[in-house]
């Protein structure tokens, strides 16, 4: 039952995100034609969202490495 719900959820997510991307693209194109700077904010948001998983994994990796070194020193 849980696997079926997970598969169904994963199948629904790409459809919703694809629709949102088209709306964002249209908004940015319209704003850019008018001389707006909304595209810069959108790009900064994308970079922020892209960087966060790497920062979190780096933090977890650092603490794991430090813990491993402490155990080896004992």
Q: Could you walk me through the main structural features you see in this protein, from its secondary elements to its overall organization?
A:
This protein has one domain. Helices cover 92% and strands 0% of the residues. The protein contains two helices and no strands. It has helices spanning 2-33, 38-73. The model has no long low-confidence stretch (mean pLDDT 82).
Instruction: State the oligomer.
Output: single chain
- What's the rounded overall pLDDT mean? 82
Shape: flat
Distance between the termini: 46 Å
Proportion of β residues? under 5%
Sequence stretches where pLDDT stays below 50 over 5 or more residues: none
Secondary structure tally, helices: 2
- Helix-and-strand structural type: mainly alpha
DSSP strand count: 0
The sequence of SSEs as H and E is HH
- Total of domains: 1
What is the alpha-carbon Rg in Å? Answer: 20 Å
Level of helix content?
A: over 70%
The major pleated sheet works out as: none
């Amino acid at each position: 039952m849980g696997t079926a719900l997970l598969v169904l959820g994963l199948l629904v997510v790409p459809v919703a995100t694809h629709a949102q991307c088209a709306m964002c693209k249209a908004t940015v194109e319209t704003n850019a034609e008018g001389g707006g700077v909304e595209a810069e904010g959108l790009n900064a948001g994308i970079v922020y969202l892209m960087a966060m998983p790497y920062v979190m994994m780096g933090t977890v990796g650092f603490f794991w490495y430090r813990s491993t070194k402490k155990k080896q020193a004992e």
